[in-house]
Specification:
Elements lengths: L26 H18 L23 H19 L14 H26 L7 H18 L17 H19 L13 H23 L4 H21 L1 H11 L1 H13 L9 H25 L8 H13 L14 H23 L4 H21 L22 E2 L2 E2 L4 E3 L2 E3 L1 H24 L2 H11 L1 H6 L4 H27 L17 H11 L5 H16 L7 H15 L8 H7 L1 H4 L10
Antiparallel strand pairs: 1-2, 3-4
Helix pairs in contact: 1-2, 1-4, 2-3, 2-7, 3-4, 3-7, 6-9, 10-14, 10-17, 10-18, 10-19, 11-12, 11-13, 11-17, 12-17, 14-17, 15-17, 18-19
Length: 608
């Protein structure tokens, strides 16, 4: 009789290249925890989080989310959708063209951060966790469970770089820390999105309309946040939500579709912006809107100088001041020594031409310089302008600008009988003074965008890019570098002066202190340059979005007091560290900063 024995089956341990998560939870269990935690976070927003209405937003109501609960609801719903897409649920595959796991991690992390920020804020402001209702405990536990599950999702771990066996303790620490950061980046990395399939034209246009509608809703909600805690929560949710959408590949697909219909996208964006005043019940937030448009228009003009031509201009705000002062002097202000009142179109021409003349006068003797030397000269011009208008007060110099008091009582514009200084009723909506100027600035912004697009695609625009990339090579190819740079300087100055003419009438007063190199209140040269770099040099949407963020965020962070600029500067440093090409970069700059990430993983002999 023969007895057969079978060897016991053993489970093989994960190999070095087997995808694993950041924490030791099985991937299937982690995915289930992330999904369940996200669903529970959504449910918790319909519960009361605190017992008293003393905390802003009234989080005491059952069945009706309010305040920060709405942000957690949005983040939890987004995380739930990505989790379901990771299971391959039919009809949700379009949500994750680049893979779902990285999007799940960002969405869950954003929901966790917003929920725990709210819970901690309630405990601190009201005097302890005893002020939490069951909903507060539920959302804290649910988002924590979801985060642990998301961190367990598998990813390809990078191999550690070799190290010298004789390396000291500090070198070993740096090596281990660098590998840990590489592992963390790999955990939140996503693959390349699959190409978007061609849809019927009407379907792609509907996609563009939907994207613009979402953008309008997000902007309207952000600018209309009523208290500090809500705005901080909005920043957390919007930041992680955008990252999740980007990692999922939806942003790339939307960009590809909008690139096929550029004219429709641009027109749709301006239509969406024109609808903003109709979403407001008063003129309060239209004030921020018109200042954002002024700031954005000037930043777009600077983008021609810096982004296209590569000329570092640190005194660009002076051209805005030249346009504002020139328009104020001829617009009927009692502080003006000329005593004239030009119509709007004439004041616009005066402001734009004055900035053009100053741009040529400053650029002609200085644009033969390069790099840091040109930056120093432009910085000096900005300071000279401010000091000059401060001294032309009739005492230190000729009586022209009224010195430090500035030119005050600038009258409102009246265009073809339409007084921009009074409210008007349009289709049942009351459009106030600042909304009137918002529409005017929107029209001027459209003109500036048109100039930027046409000049960037023209022969002179190609010459600007050639000068920016390598001036020596461009000169060797026959490009007249001085002429090309002077044209960029003049066009940029003219566009800034155009915005300055409207700024003078919006603010009623122009003073030298409005045109500093750096300060807490934009626009100033440092903020303008930061808007271009933050948004993305050489693009249209980049400086517009960068200017909106740089104006809106400091305005909403005033509760930080003396720490406002510290927090703002830290945020900029982190953003430039992890996304140096800007929020909306052009393809060339994206490849410059991410060559390794875009390189093929398997090299041929030629590639090697």
């Amino acid at each position: 009789m023969t007895t057969q024995t079978t060897a016991a089956k053993t489970v093989a341990a994960p190999g070095p290249n087997t995808p694993t998560g950041l924490i030791g939870i099985p991937a299937d269990l982690g995915r289930a925890l992330a999904t369940g935690g996200s669903v529970l976070a959504v449910v918790s927003t319909f519960l009361a989080w605190t017992w008293t209405a003393a905390y802003p937003g009234d989080l005491t109501v059952y069945g009706y989310p309010g305040g920060l609960q709405v942000l957690v609801l949005v983040g939890g719903a987004l995380a739930t959708l990505f989790c379901l897409a990771s299971y391959g649920v039919k009809g949700l595959g379009w949500l994750t063209p680049a893979g779902a796991d990285a999007a799940v991690k960002y969405a869950v992390l954003g929901t966790f951060a917003t929920a725990w920020y709210t819970v901690i804020s309630i405990s601190v402001e009201l005097g302890g966790v005893v002020n939490l209702e069951p909903g507060g405990y539920v959302v804290a536990a649910a988002t924590l469970i979801a985060l642990l599950g998301a961190l367990a999702l598998p990813f390809e771990r990078p191999e550690p770089d070799p190290i010298d066996p004789e390396a000291g303790g500090w070198e070993q620490f740096r090596h281990d820390a660098g590998h840990a950061m590489a592992v963390l980046r790999a955990a939140f990395a996503s693959g390349s999105p699959r190409p978007v399939r061609t849809l019927p034209s009407y379907a792609e246009i509907l996609v563009i309309v939907a994207v613009l509608a979402i953008a309008l809703v997000v902007f309207t909600y952000g600018i209309g946040t009523e208290y500090d805690e809500q705005f901080v929560g909005f920043l957390i949710t919007a930041g992680f939500g955008f990252s999740a959408l980007n990692r999922s590949g939806l942003i790339a697909h939307a960009s590809q579709i909008s690139a096929r219909h550029q004219n429709i996208t641009v027109c749709g964006a301006f239509v969406a912006a024109a609808l903003f005043p109709f979403t407001q019940t008063d003129d309060q937030y239209a004030t921020l809107g018109v200042y954002i448009l002024i700031f954005a228009t000037v930043a777009l003009g600077l983008n021609i100088v810096v982004g296209l031509a590569g000329l570092l201009d640190l005194g660009y705000v002076a051209f805005l001041g030249v346009g504002a002062y020139a328009a104020a002097l001829v617009s009927g202000s009692p502080s003006s020594p000329f005593g004239v009142h030009f119509p709007f179109w004439a004041a616009v021409l005066v402001g734009a031409l004055a900035s053009l003349v100053f741009g040529v006068l400053i650029g002609a003797p200085t644009l033969r310089l390069r790099g840091d030397y040109l930056a120093i000269v432009t910085l000096g011009f900005g300071e000279i302008f401010r000091i000059a208008v401060n001294n032309t007060d009739g005492t230190s110099g000729p009586d022209l600008t009224n010195g430090s008091n500035g030119i005050a009582s600038i009258p409102d514009l009246n265009i073809l009988g339409f007084d921009l200084g009074v409210a008007h009723d349009i289709a049942g909506f009351t459009i106030g003074r600042f909304a009137n100027y918002f529409f005017l600035m929107l029209l001027i912004t459209a003109v500036v965008v048109l100039v930027f697009r046409r000049s960037g695609d023209s022969r002179i625009g190609r010459a600007w890019v050639a000068i920016r990339e390598d001036e020596t090579a461009a000169l060797a190819m026959g490009i007249n570098g001085f002429r090309v740079k002077l044209i960029a300087f003049a066009v940029g100055a003219t566009l800034a002066g155009l915005a300055g003419t409207v700024q003078a009438h919006v603010t009623y007063t122009v003073t030298p202190e409005q045109y500093l190199f750096a300060g807490t209140t934009p626009p100033n040269s440092a903020f303008l340059l930061a808007a271009v770099v933050l948004g993305g040099m050489g693009t249209i949407a980049g400086p517009l979005i960068g200017a909106a963020l740089l104006f809106l965020i400091p305005n909403k962070l005033q509760f930080l007091g003396d720490y406002q600029l510290l927090a703002f500067g830290l945020a900029l440093v982190l953003l430039m560290r992890f996304r140096p090409e800007g929020l909306i970069p052009n393809r060339r700059r994206q490849l410059e900063f991410h060559e390794e990430a875009d390189a093929p993983t398997v090299l041929s002999k030629t590639g090697a």
